[in-house]
Amino acid sequence: MSGNFNISSSPHIRAQITTRDIMIYVLIALIPAACFGIFNFGISALTVIAVTTLSAVITEAVYQKLMHKRVTADDCSAAVTGLLLALNLPPAAPWWMCVLGSIFAILIVKQLFGGLGQNFMNPALGARCFLLISFTGRMTTFVYNDVVTSPTPLAAMKAGESVDVLDMLLGNTAGTIGETSAVAIMAGAIFLLVKGVIDLRIPGTYIASFVIFIILFGGRGLDGSYVIAQLCGGGLMLGAWFMATDYVTSPITKNGKILYGACLGILTGVFRLFGGSAEGVSYAIIISNLLVPLIEKLTLPKPFGKGGER
Amino acid sequence: MGLLTFKGGIHPDDGKRLAKDRAVRTVLPKGELVYPLSQHIGAPASPTVSVGDQVSRGQKIAEAGGFVSAPVFTSVSGTVKAIEMRFNPAGAKVKSIVIENDGQYQEVPSEPPKLLDEMSKEEIVRLIGGSGIVGMGGAGFPTHVKLSPKEPDKIEYVIANCAECEPYITADYRRMLENPKELISGMRVLLKLFDNAKGVFAIEDNKPECIEIMSELIKEEPRMEVKVLKTKYPQGAERQLIFVTTGRAINSSMLPADAGCIVNNVETLIAIHTAVIAGKAVMERIVTVSGDAVREPGNFKVLFGTSCRELIEAAGGFKETPEKVISGGPMMGFAMHTVDVPVTKTSSSILCMSKDAVAANTPSACINCGRCVNACPSRIVPSRLAALAERHDEEGFKKMNGMECVECGSCSYVCPAKRPLKQAIGSMRKIALANMKKK
User: Fold this and answer.
1) Among B131, B231, B295, B330, which one has the highest count of C-beta atoms within 10 angstroms of its own C-beta?
2) What would the pLDDT profile of B263-316 be if each residue is shown by its tens digit?
3) How many domains are there within chain A?
4) In which domain, by residue range, is A270 found?
C-alpha cells in the first residue's frame, strides 16, 4: 500500500454519457425517418443514405490522418452529419453528388474551421445549400410514384393547388429522403427528448413562432389544414428537431435557445411566404447559425446571487 | 410543501450504502502523529513546543498565528520528535509537528467547564477560537471568525449544514444518528451568541432517519427547526444552502452574514459542544473510510494527526490496489499520491477507488451541448469560462462572471467530452484573486 496513486484535480467521478453516446442516440433517432424514406422512395434512397454517410466518415478519417491529427471518426459525429445530409437529398441524387456533398460538409464546413465543435454552420445544411446552388435542377427534381418532376406539397401549395394533409403527416409525398414523414421524424424526436439529448426550447419556439407567422401573414388566417400542411411540408420538422438542435451551431444559453428558435420561425416564414422558393428551412437555419454568437452575448445568464438564483 | 431546492446541480451515484450502516468505531494510533500547522484558512499556527519536549494529551503545541488562524493541540501524550515539512492530504508540504506517541494518553489537567448560562458571548467565542475549531466540513475557515460578524444582532439564521451532499461520505449521517444531543447542544451554544437567530438543521431527504431523530429531539426547542432539502449535489454548498433555507441569495462578494446567516457543518457543531459544554480540547473527528477498493468501509472516530495508512488498515486495508485515494468527497476532495499523510481537522473521509474515472476518459472537443450550463448552481457558463481560462483571458473571464464559480465540479462531472472544466476555471480564479489582492 505504498504510494503513487493517481493525482488529478477534482471532481474524481464522471457521468457515464460520452460525446459518442450522444451521437449514437441521434443516429438511432434518425432511423425511423431513414427507414420511412427507403420505404417511400425505394432502393435509390438506400443508396443515397449509404454513400453519403460512408463518404462523410471516410472524409473525416482521411483528412485527420493526412493532417496527423487524432482520428476521431469513431465519435460518430461525421456519421450523423452524413446521415442528416442524406436525409436532405432527393432520392434520385446521383452518387457523385452524394460524395461531393459529404466532402463539402466535413472538409469545408467542419474540418477547415477546426473540426468537431468549431464549425459555425451546420455542416449538413451547409452542404445541402452548396448543392442546391450548384446543381439546382438535380436538387429540386423529385421523382415520386414514377412521376418525374412531381411537385412537393409546398411547391403545389405555393402554386395554389390543394394537398392531402394526411399524406403529408404520414409522408406519402414527394420531397427529400428524410423530410416527408412528420410521424417518423416525431418518433425520433420523442426519443431524443426522453433521453435528454435535446429539450423543447429550440424546436418548440421554432414551431410556435413559425405557426404564428403563418397565421398572421399566410393569407389564410386560422386555417388548420393549411397550418398543418405548412408544418409538415418541406424540411421544417426535420430541421426543427434535428438540424436546429445541433449543439455546436446553436446557443448554449437557455434564453438564447428561445431567441434562436424565434429567429428560425420568423426567417422560415419570410422565406416561404415572400421568397422565390417554396422552401426556406435550410437557409433560415444557416443564417440563424451566424447569429448565434450575438444571441449568446445578449442572453448571458445572470449568476446566482445577482438575480439568477430564481 | 415541495422540497427545498435550487436551480442546477447534479445527481451522481451517492455511494453512501457502502458505509452508512456502519456504526462509528474508535481507532487508536500506533506510531508517530503528525500535526500540520496549517489545517485551516489563514495564517499558519506557530509552534509552542520544541523537539524533545514531553507533551500531554490536549496540550497546545502551536498557537494561532493571527486573528484568522487557529491553534493546534496534540491528541496524544509523548515526545516531540520533529518539527519539519510533511505532506498534508492536499498534496502540499507544510510545516508540521511530529509527536511520538507514548501510548499513555496522559491528559493535561483542565478546569471543569462553566455552565453555558454563566458564560458571556465574548467568553464563548474566545473559547471556540482558543480550542482551534475550524470549519470541519472541509473548508477549514476558523470558526471564531465566522462567529464574529460586524452586526451580531442582524443574524437571523444559524444553519447547521446537515446536507452531506458529497457522495460516499457518511460521517455527518452517523453523527446525527449517534450524537444528536451533542449536535443540538452545539446549536444551543451558537443561539446564545445570536439573540435574534433561529437554529435550522438543513437535512437532505435521503437521510429520513436523521430527519426523524432531529425533529423529535428539537420538539421542545422553540428556537430550532428542521428543514428538509431535496437530495441533490451541491445542496450543502454554502450559498445554495442559505438560499434554500432562507430564500436569500449571496454572491461571491458577500458573506453569509450579509444575508443574516451563519453556517456550520455537523462536525463543527459537535466540536463546539466539546469545547464549550464538555470543556475538552477538540482532538478527534469522525472520518468515513469508503470506496470499492477498501475491504470494510466504515466510519471511524480518529485522533487528529493519525496516519491515513493506519486508518485504512483499521478499515481492513485495501481489497485491491486503488488507482486513486481521495481525501474528502469525490466531487471536491483532494487526490492523494500517498496514504502517509495525517488526518487533519478537515478530513471528512478517505475514499479508495479501484478505478480512476478521470484517467479512464480522454478529454475531447467541446460540442457546446450545454450540460454544464444546466448543471451549474452558480448559473454561469462553464464551457465558455474554461475556454477563456485556457486562453488566459482574465478580463473576459471576470466579465463573464467567472469569479462567481464555487468550484463544486458539477460541470466537469456532466461533461460528455470529459473536459476538466472546473480545473481550468479554478486555476483562473486563483490567478485572478491573487492579482486582485496585489492591487
Assistant:
1) B330
2) 999 999 999 999 999 988 899 999 999 999 999 999 999 999 999 999 999 999
3) 1
4) 20-298
Q: How far is CA A113 from each of CA A108, A132, B317, rounded to the nearest angstrom?
A: 8, 22, 52
Instruction: Indicate which of B376, B412, B421, B427 best probes the interface with A, i.e. most A CBs within 10 Å of its own CB.
Output: B412
Shortest CA distance from B357: residue in chain A: A13
Task: List C-alpha distances in Å: B23 to B97, B305, B372.
Answer: 31, 22, 37
**Model's pTM, two decimal places?**
0.94
**For the CA atoms of chain B, what is the radius of gyration?**
21
- Alpha-carbon distance of A109 to A118, in angstroms, equals 9
A16 interface with B at CB cutoff 8 Å: no
Mean pLDDT over the full length of chain A: 92
Interface test with A, best of B292, B368, B407, B421 (most A CBs within 10 A): B368
Question: How far, CA to CA in Å, does B225 sit from each of B173, B190, B193?
Answer: 18, 14, 17
The pLDDT tens digits for A119-178 are 999 999 999 999 999 998 888 888 776 666 677 888 888 777 778 888 888 888 888 999
For A66-74, what is the mean pLDDT? 93
Q: Percent of chain A beyond pLDDT 90?
A: 77
pLDDT value at residue A222 = 84
Which residues in chain A are contacts of B367 at CB distance < 8 A? 19, 22, 77, 116-117, 247-248
Nearest-CA distance from A110 to chain B in Å? 12
Residue intervals of chain B classified under CATH 3.40.50.11540 are 116-277
Which chain B residues are Cβ-neighbours of A302 within 8 angstroms? 379
- Residue A203, preceding bond cis, omega within 30 degrees? no
Q: Is residue A175 part of a domain?
A: yes
B239 vs A3, A10, A305: nearest CB = A305
Q: The domain B116-277 is classified under which CATH number: 3.40.640.10, 3.40.50.11540, 3.40.50.720, 3.30.360.20?
A: 3.40.50.11540
The two beta strands, B198-204 and B224-229, are parallel
Contacts of residue B103, defined as CB under 8 A and 6 or more positions apart, other chains included, come to B76, B78
Contacts of B368 in chain A (CB under 8 A): 117, 247-248, 250, 252
How many Cβ atoms sit within 10 Å of the Cβ of residue B122? 10
Q: Which residue has the higher pLDDT, A190 or A164?
A: A190
Within 8 A by CB and 6+ apart from A112, the residues are none
CA distance, residue B403 to nearest chain A CA (Å): 10
Q: Does A255 touch chain B (CB under 8 A)?
A: no
pLDDT-based confidence at residue B30 (cuts at 50, 70, 90): confident
Higher local confidence (pLDDT), B409 or A148: B409
Interface test with B, best of A10, A77, A81 (most B CBs within 10 A): A10
Q: What is the mean pLDDT of residues A251-264?
A: 97
Residue B432 in contact with residue B402, Cβ under 8 Å?
Answer: yes
Q: CB distance A10–B422 less than 8 Å?
A: yes
**pLDDT digit string, tens, across residues B174-187:** 999 999 999 999 99
Q: Which of residues 71-90 of A touch B (CB under 8 A)?
A: 72, 75, 77
- pLDDT value of residue A214: 93
B 100-139 → A contacts, CB under 8 A? none
Asked if A6 and B356 come within 8 Å (Cβ–Cβ), the reply is yes
Measuring CA to CA, how many Å separate A155 from each of A144, A175, A234, A305, B300? 14, 10, 9, 53, 75
pLDDT given for residue A234 in this prediction: 87
Does the beta carbon of B94 lie under 8 angstroms from any beta carbon of chain A? Answer: no
**pLDDT for position A149:** 66
CA B207, CA B110: separation in Å to the nearest integer?
37
Look at residue A154 in the predicted model and tell me its pLDDT. 84
Residues 116-175 of A with CB under 8 A from B: 116-118
Distance from CA of B279 to the nearest CA of A (A): 37
